[in-house]
Amino acid sequence: MSTMNRKLLESITDKMSRYVEHFDKNEIECLIREFYVLLGEQNAHGKAVPGLDRGKFRSVLHHAFNITDDMIMDGVFRTFDKDNDGFLSVKEWIAGLCVFLRGRLDEKIKYCFTVYDLNNDGYISRDEMFHLLKNSLTSQPNEEDPDEGIKDLVEITLKKMDHDHDGKLSLIDFVTAVKEENLLLEAFGPCLPDLTAIYTFEERVFKEEEEQ
Amino acid sequence: MGSALTRAAQWTSSSASGSRTLALTLLNQTLLSEILQFVEDVKSLHPQSAEVVFEEPLQWRTALQTSDLQAGYKISDSGVQSEQQDSSGRPLLLLSPPHVSVSCFSLLSELLYLCEDKEAELRACLEEIDKLRGKDRNAKVQLLQLLQRLNKQILDKVLQQISEQVHLHTSLMKNELDSLMLFCGDDDRSLLKSLRYISDFEFANGCRAPPHRQLLGEMAYVAVETYDTEPLYVSCSSRGAFLNKGVKVYEADDNDYEQTGETFEDLTSLLKKKSCYFSQNIHKEDPNRQQLRNPEPLTKWRENGLLSDTRKSEEQKSSSAEKGKSKAEFSLSSSPGRYSPQKSRTPARSRLKEALSESSPESEEEEAEQLERHPETNADLPSEQLRLQKLIKYLREGDQTVTVLTMCSLMELDLKQETYQLAIRDLGGLDVLLNILDTKEMRCIIGSLKILRVISHSAQIQRSMVKMKGVQSLVPLLDISLPELQALAAETLANVAKFRKARRTVRHCGGIDKLVRLLDCAPTSSSLSPREELDVEAARCGALALWSCSRSSRNKEAIRRAGGIPLLGRLLRSPHVNMLIPVTGTLQECASEESYRNAVRSEGMIKDLVRNLSSENQELQMHSASAIFKCAEDEKTRDLINQYRGPQRLALLLSKPENKQLLAAATGAIWKCSISPKNVTKFQEYRVLEKLVSLMSEQPEEVLVNVVAALGEFAKIQENRAVIGQSGGIEKLVRLLTGRNQALLVNVTRTLGICATDMKNMAIIDQLDGLRLVWSLLKNPSPEVQSSAAWALCPIIQNGKDVGESMRRLIGGFQLLIKLLKSTNNEVLASVCAVIAKITEDKEENVALLTDYGVVPLLANLTSTTDECLRRHLAEAIAYCCMWSQNRTAFGKAGAVAPLVRYVKSDNSQVHETTVVALYQLSKDVDNCISLHSNGVIQPLLELMGHDNEDVAFMAAGCVRNIRMLANANKFSKWID
Lengths: 212, 977
Hints:
The complex is a heterodimer.
Chain A: H1 6-19, H2 25-43, E1 52-53, H3 54-65, H4 70-80, E2 87-88, H5 90-102, H6 105-116, E3 123-124, H7 126-133, H8 148-161, E4 169-170, H9 171-180, H10 195-211
Antiparallel strand pairs in A: 1-2, 3-4
Helix pairs in contact in A: 1-2, 2-10, 4-6, 6-9, 7-8
Chain B: H1 2-8, H2 26-45, H3 47-50, E1 58-61, E2 73-76, E3 79-82, E4 93-96, E5 99-102, H4 105-114, H5 118-126, H6 137-181, E6 194-197, H7 211-214, E7 218-225, E8 232-237, E9 240-243, H8 267-274, H9 276-284, H10 287-293, H11 299-324, H12 336-339, H13 341-344, H14 348-358, H15 361-380, H16 382-397, H17 400-412, H18 418-426, H19 429-437, H20 442-455, H21 459-467, H22 470-477, H23 483-496, H24 500-508, H25 511-518, H26 530-549, H27 553-561, H28 564-571, H29 577-590, H30 594-602, H31 605-612, H32 618-631, H33 635-643, H34 646-653, H35 660-673, H36 677-685, H37 688-694, H38 701-714, H39 718-726, H40 729-736, H41 742-755, H42 759-767, H43 770-776, H44 783-799, H45 803-809, H46 813-820, H47 826-840, H48 844-852, H49 855-862, H50 868-881, H51 885-893, H52 897-905, H53 909-922, H54 926-934, H55 938-944, H56 950-976
Antiparallel strand pairs in B: 1-5, 2-3, 3-4, 4-5, 6-7, 7-8, 8-9
Helix pairs in contact in B: 1-6, 2-4, 2-5, 2-6, 6-11, 8-9, 10-15, 14-21, 16-17, 17-20, 19-20, 20-23, 22-23, 23-26, 25-26, 26-29, 28-29, 29-32, 31-32, 32-35, 34-35, 35-38, 38-41, 40-41, 41-44, 44-47, 47-50, 49-50, 50-53, 52-53, 53-56, 55-56
Protein name (chain B): Armadillo repeat-containing protein 4
Region (Disordered) (chain B): 282-382
ARM repeats (chain B): 812-854, 936-963
């Protein structure tokens, strides 16, 4: 940390605080430090990289936020990684966390939709739903088609959420459904941290700074 | 140790080899380590005892090899042996693998010291241990003491563990026994002669059996006397109920505890088998008894008891594991301990029966009806039924994502329909929904609550939820600081707490405190942040739940103790009607307690309650009026109501006569407020009196009761009595005399009595034959009506025309009075005495009639009373009856004089006024004078001679004069002699 250029830190903080609405400057600074700590851990194994890679980010998701499903973790990374270069820059990191930790409902809806939209085509299709829910149902061993339950669930969900009846969920469908029933926000798997996780993370990252 | 081992240790059933082995359970593990500790310590702590040689050596199969033993042992062909020998020359330790035998504790502990797996060794040993006996006399006693101490220690340990499990059993057992006790007695509806516990002492865990029997799962012993068998002595244990050999005292002989018959599921089934009378009649019983009969199948004793432990530890394990581990593994079926319904909750079908057997009589019939109807309605919705079935299946089998999805789909259904509500329960959905409440998944819990909140409107679901211990799951949720969730949980509780058992359960779970804490949200301004809005909503739901709960008086007390009153007072200032309704509802429900009424006044809530009378919302107006109705019993409160312009607002409420509930509450409030003349004056400004009179026809009784009572208060002012008469109120009142509602009759007679002091009104009453109508109410079975009617008769008799004539025409009228003099109610007696005084006043023929009916001894009988009101009117009645000279003598003979003398010594001046008249009358009789004098009447009379009231002074003086004259005459006659 000490090696970090104080000036650089300040300039990034300044720049970011213009884009990010839910964090104050001090918090942004803490997050930047956290970013570089993580990056440092990552670098220990190899040469310098442009940002956090998928593996490191996944371990953060797993350990700090209890998000453990592979497909969801990838989805979250994809959502954070706006430029799709396989690495999270410090800007992507802060912008992502902004929604992730403190987003308003509409921001979170958009975020969740993107996570679930596995192929990034702007729709959550039947297939995508099926993939996301694949492991969610323990099927009885005596059942003929173990996937039948999932397929049925997909149909039930589609019936509930597909307002324009085109057989797939558009962002508008999703927004409408979630606004109607907030519980549908994380409809296809947990991709947001729960309150305790947020609290623990913020406590750790934002407190550390004060101690220093 | 023997008893501890045979009783407590859990043996497996005989294995293939025919010998029993110790089961691998937690309990046995504790036992083993206790014993191991003992054996290891015995050598160092009690060296002498440790050397005592056993009568027979302990023998078991050991894992030790001869090579393990070295120093101090002799190695021979047959194995290793110790150097010590017993009296007959046998070595005290002999090891010939795999067999070993040991004959004293010191060697045993050495041996165990050498073993690698001490517990396994000890286990093998214990399985043979019964042969343990000491020989040496002196040390033997010590050893026995030691063993006994160990025994006790072990038993204590075991008891601790067991008592947790036992707790559940006992409450069920108690329920059953309590219910059965209701059927004991001598009348022909009883099923049993008697049923009693052998011991009155109840341990903290609910058991009544001695501790060493509790270890066997026995909880209590009862003696049952049936109508057709010998007395039965029954053991109630966690396995069920069975006959014992005759446990008649708390610490019975060991043999008495022995089981003599088969084990039944519960006491009821045992009795059914043993007593024909019981089994025949239990089926004949009417439905409301049905509910008590099978309070809870005791099969659940077992289930809940032994499984609960494993379930708990499993849950703890899984929850602690969950913290560190991934949440993705969350799956409803993957943690069976928590989710399989048969563990904590019995399957839906059997629960259906339970729900039926528990409910109150009316709703039971209703439920039965609904159940019959139920399959038909289902037949109309086969596809819906199928869909529901599938959803509940997913609910049970899916992880939290699927659970939430499924619950969202369930919410799509019209859950307000009873068909769906019952179907969800019967398909096992209610189980799952309640189980979800015990998890840590907030989204799932919220989803579950959203469904429960709706379906818990059904009375049947409410009962099922309480049965399935849903309240116990709901209450802890109130502690989670997520206002949305708190609000939902509180709202659900508000629905569930619609019947007594549910309300009691909420209290027992500590729910009242938590609900009261929800009320603690500061903001009362109208602009709120979203977070504050949620808090306010939680507080509102908390108030709703408290409202439901406050119907039980114990809960009222609990709310007060939890500091709920000031919080309710603060919320009462909220600008939101939907908040005010439950808050006012709770307050008016609680205002039946005096502590609340005082608090409502001292916390300044009257102002808010009065202000809400002018709310737009009729429901709020109604609750506010009800609260005022209850609180206005107190004079200071009435003054406050006046100060906050309460009368004006109440007067306005009378203009909405179509809302009967509101009208009843408003007229009630007017009644209580009009007890203060200040308020009456205010009411008159708004012509409330005329409105009340006009309300006296074609209103429901609950309105009439209040209207008539309010008129009574108004009529205390002379002009108002005239107004009532002029506006046709008397006719309406007299018409109401023929009604049946006792509360109404009490108020009507009271008001009529007050109105009868106006001569014009009296003329109307006479004309309508009011005297006869009121008189006939003396026949009413209710003492309140009797006394109220009698009081009303007094002014009517006093002011009526030709009353003497019309009274004598009342057939049996006087007999009725005589009959009421035998009443046990002081109020009735006082009022009847007052009537007697009125009808005998200056009417000697009535005195004669009453004397014929035997009024004198009856009145004389009453003189011993200490009730001041009764004393006053009794003395008056006696005074008038004494106009007839024979009666004076008769009263004296009946012993009425001495008690009457005591009356003048009381400090009630009204009593004095009537008593001196009676005494004066009585003193006209010579014998009475003597007893008056001997009872020390002179001194108090001399004081009364200085009374402000001239009549009193005159009568007192007259009485003294009569006594004095007698004394003089006496002296004179002596002198002559």
